[in-house]
Amino acid sequence: MSRGGKGNKANLPTKTCPVCGRPFSWRRKWARDWPQVIYCSERCRRARGRV
Prior knowledge:
The chain has a domain at 14-46. 10% of the residues lie in helices and 12% in strands. The chain is built from 1 helix and 2 strands.
């Protein structure tokens, strides 16, 4: 299996953002701390107290 090709994104784990309610999927940059990821974006993280 080559690492350069496209993977099957349907099998990635997903979570729901508590601020906007949208689902978001795992990203490689979150690989080490996926259990601690709560918000889908920096914008939602900043807006967490206003909603």
